[in-house]
Amino acid sequence: MLIRYKKQFEKIAMGLMSFMPGEKDIKKLQQSMKQYETDEAWQLFLWKEEDIIGLIGIVHTSENVAEIQHISVNPSHRRQGVGRNMVLSIREMFPEKTIDANEVTAPFFEKCAEEESAGSEC
């Protein structure tokens, strides 16, 4: 289930986001978190099952488009469809928008498309 990010989840969110390429540096990570906390166009969501195991962050780039800036799943829960479920939930949450990937998240989308056609989970 997708839930909105709250400040109380900051450490968990930062831990998940640190798995993203380019987010290893603590200053860059803090900057990204601040962007989600202060800019209305940036929205961060967490995927919760028993625990929080995933994160997806979007930026509303226009009235019709939202771009996925961050997507990360706890390594012990990967290849179980969590990332794909987060994307599907975002699409359901914003049906009027086209959901795009940025240059960092595009490889995930491509991998999912390949694996979906092969019948496995990304």
UniProtKB/TrEMBL annotation:
Keywords: Acyltransferase, Transferase. GO terms for molecular function: acyltransferase activity, transferring groups other than amino-acyl groups. Residues 3-122 form the N-acetyltransferase domain. Coiled coil: none annotated. SUPFAM superfamilies: Acyl-CoA N-acyltransferases (Nat) (SSF55729). This is GNAT family N-acetyltransferase. It comes from Neobacillus notoginsengisoli.
